[in-house]
Amino acid sequence: MCSFRLFGLQKLNEEDVQKPKVNEVQKPKDEKVQKPKGGKVQKPKEDEVWSTKVTKKDLKNAVEDEFGVKYSKDWKRLLKAPGKLKGEYHIREGVKVIGDNAFYNLNSLTNINIPDSVTNIGNGAFCRCESLNSINIPNSVTNIGNYAFCGCESLTSINIPNSVTNIGSSAFSRCESLTSINIPNSVTSIGQYAFYNCTSLTDVYYDGTETEWKKISIDEYGNGNIYLTNATIHFAASTKIAQNIRTVGWYTDHILYGNLLFSGNTAQRSHRLFRHPGQLLQALFHTLPLFQTGIQFLSDQCL
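RESULT FIELD:
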């Protein structure tokens, strides 16, 4: 038999085995969550969330109202109206944007009501709605897209709210029945061909001074806005006389407005109320060759 002897092997007692101390056990370090600079969580940009661009995926995942108009699932974006839509339509409250070409070529649509939650009217949103004769643009809207109302042949007047800063290219082109438009001094740019072929446009009521009007970037390429620039521009500086009007009327050979009485050669001798400051201006500076013979403060009874 063979026998083996192990040299240098020493039996270790249990107490000789070194155990790590409790306070020496290394725990994994907590990973720090990297925060963006400034400690604020970055959110998607507003224009990314409320884009007017409508994709096939958007339409596939859309929900419909009782008229068949398609909206995003959160009801914040109006995507597409059906071709059968006609007459008057009220856009749902809470909608943020009207998508590109949402109401394109709806020839039987006559009136549209936009809630004051809408901020952006997309490109071509109401293009070629040839029967559209009435539309309200609320104070919440900041942008009117390219071709937004192109070819709306039945529109006769448009009131742009003072929240709008940009009127897109061809926004109102070929609105051949448009005779007047109100433009606020918040507008800084008017795009190429914005009022192209608006052959009936004669009056522009601008809520600002002539100096401010000249600062607006109006794209005049190819005389595309010639009907706008050739129209009579009524500046606020000229109309401020009518801003605080309480009562307007003709009394024999006197004209009464506010608390001022002007006398002179009047063209008519009938009572009449003016519904628009421009009408008063026309009466004061064109129709009636007035000369101011005196200013008299009238009692409240006369007003």
